[in-house]
Amino acid sequence: MANRVTICDATNLGSDRPVFVLDILTETITVQELIRRRVYQDVKDYNARQTDVFQGLVQPTDAEQTLNGYRMKRVRPIDWETQYERAIAAFRNNGFILLINDEQADSLEQEIVLKPDTSATFLKLMPLVGG
Prior knowledge:
Blueprint: E1 3-11, E2 16-24, E3 28-30, H1 31-49, E4 53-54, E5 63-66, E6 69-72, H2 80-92, E7 96-100, E8 103-104, E9 111-113, E10 117-124
Parallel strand pairs: 1-10
Antiparallel strand pairs: 1-2, 3-9, 4-6, 5-6, 7-8, 7-10
Helix pairs in contact: 1-2
């Protein structure tokens, strides 16, 4: 039986929204693999519809941040591997925090024990103006 992981995005400004559900056939997964699968799905969904807004985990090259995602300067396919590298760098540099069932993941190598109702919240950190 597959373990369902509900992927949500949130910001430190209070917004929270479900993104999609991943079905994972194993009982454990590393944080790094979960990020890889999430980024792959983000890019796959975007490339299938290719709109002018990318609603993924990290900002693609040649895009500007908007309220609901990243506005592409020109509609084009996005490379998932480039986005994955950017996401790993963002995790390492505290660009986002990953919460697994409301507990913070500490490292990319950390193993997550999956249950049928696991939730993964990607908390995107937003700089405060006037800090």
